[in-house]
Amino acid sequence: MGSLLVGGFVFVFLSMATSIGLVVRGRLPDHHLNAESKDVIRLATAVVGTLSALALGLLIASAKSSYDNAEVEMRTAAARVLLLDRVMAQYGPETDKARQLLRKLIEKRLSRGWTAETTDETSGNAPGEYLDIEAVQADLRSLAPRDAVQHSLQARALEVSGMLAETHWLLVESGKEGLPWAFLTVLVCWLSLLFATFGLQAPANPTVLSILLVCALSVAGAIFLVSDMANPYVGLIRVSDAPLQFAIERLGKP
């Protein structure tokens, strides 16, 4: 589900909860909303409000951590691609084919995107990305080193290519984690309860309604940020592919 859609649903739910509170307020007897009753309502909702704040804080921290980790993974992968290309260049012209395969792999990644859904898909004659990585490794294994230096470079190239393959499979395994939807659902229920009590206690004048609308929009915006950062390779707030763009400009150089 898109992050904007999630934020929109949250805004609608909170607005509906506020409206329900306003409707119920008009139907309750006056003694149900006297000063003592409002004090009890405020105390009860304070507990829910504290829990909601803690839950929202945890979600934001988790989403920010996921985004930061993805950014580090992107930079690390780009650095390893450059390192692998330079090691193969030092080996000699025997690695030209492997270097071309590596460049095509990065071009495919840039065209398809950096997501678990696209890295392993097969399109026409374009195989999944893991097959490209394995093809580079197969070319490296087929090399016949002539001396100790080339033997060392071959071992290093195989090590770095193995790291790239590991990065790929980690992305595939973790790519479907996303948001903890059960946690988010409970949070939205708590927030809806809070906004219903706001409507229950608030006089229905334009100033109060405008403030409640802005508050609902702010909370929905926070949920949108959480949802978008939890999927760091897609959406409006995404990890930049600038490191890969920089890497591909330097690939294949002597």
How many β-strand runs?
0
Number of helices: 9
Broad structural category: mainly alpha
Helix content: over 70%
Largest sheet: none
Helix/strand order, N-terminal first: HHHHHHHHH
What gap, in angstroms, lies between the N and C termini?
A: 46 Å
β-strand percent reads: under 5%
Outline the low-pLDDT stretches: 122-127
The radius of gyration over CA amounts to: 27 Å
Outline, from the CA principal axes?
rod-shaped
Provide the residue-averaged pLDDT: 84
Structure description:
The structure is a single chain. It is built from nine helices and no strands. It has 254 residues and is mainly α. It is rod-shaped. Helix 1 packs parallel to helix 7 (181-201), helix 2 (35-91) runs antiparallel to helix 7 and helix 2 runs parallel beside helix 8. The two termini are 46 Å apart.
What key phrases describe this protein's structure?
single chain; 254 residues; rod-shaped
In short:
The protein is mostly helical and 254 residues long. It is built from 9 helices and no strands.
Draw up the topology in text.
Elements (H helix, E strand, L loop, with lengths): L2 H25 L7 H57 L4 H17 L3 H4 L9 H13 L6 H27 L6 H21 L4 H24 L12 H9 L4
Helix pairs in contact: 1-7, 1-8, 2-3, 2-6, 2-7, 2-8, 2-9, 3-5, 5-6
